[in-house]
Amino acid sequence: MFKRRELRIALSKSGFTVLRSTAGWNPVSTVLVDHQFSSEQHRLSVQLSALLKDADCARWPARVIVADELVRSWMVTPPKNAVSLADCQVAASARFQNLYGESLSGWQMTASWHAELPFLASALPEAVMTALQKLSEESRLVTIEVAPQSVFAWNHYQSRLQAGDWLGVLQQQRLTFMIADAHGIVHSREVLLPEQLEATELPAILNREALRLNVEMPATLLLYGDIPARWAAQRMTQLKLVRLVEDKTRQTPGIKLAMTGIAL
Question: Distance between CA atoms of 174 and 26, rounded to whole angstroms?
Fold first, then answer.
């Protein structure tokens, strides 16, 4: 029986991971590479090409999941007179400059463009995109998607959200959360959490973010990523925490990143 197959390449500041994944009646994910950086990131293409040389993955489709720590993401409200993609791109570029105090030079931008509704835009460093393109050429991969981890999580788990729920992705101390309405994402923010944060402290942090955004505090947070094991035993009265993936085995952060959005 035919099984859809693909490579999933996860990239963060600390390293990269490559999974070989097959989908079907019996999905299987095999770790090919789980590598910590021993040098600067610009050597990404060289290191990965060497590691994939004997993996027999030529011409495989590949999805690249980029950790949110490497990405800049922001919400864009298109102007009332926006009618084209170019209008949306100008609005997104202006919003980027207002938020980060610099132009998009040196970044590649992508977005869920919409001329009438707020949309999420993301920018990845040109150096990372150049390295990934070189890797694709040298390893003869067919790159079909490059996106932040939060976008992969949103695409896979959005159907599980009920009205008022928030979707969060936790990577180390970085929590990226998204709030949606019937039309899609309306807010997306990143929060740096204190080290050794207890689950019982999370509602107060989310409440402050809700006040900043002028929205209701969520009743439920659907959470994916590096969730501390101790949180499972901690009970909260103000917030229901739904762990989207239970750790059945000990997985490195790189493997968790690479598996974002895989239906298991």
Answer: 33
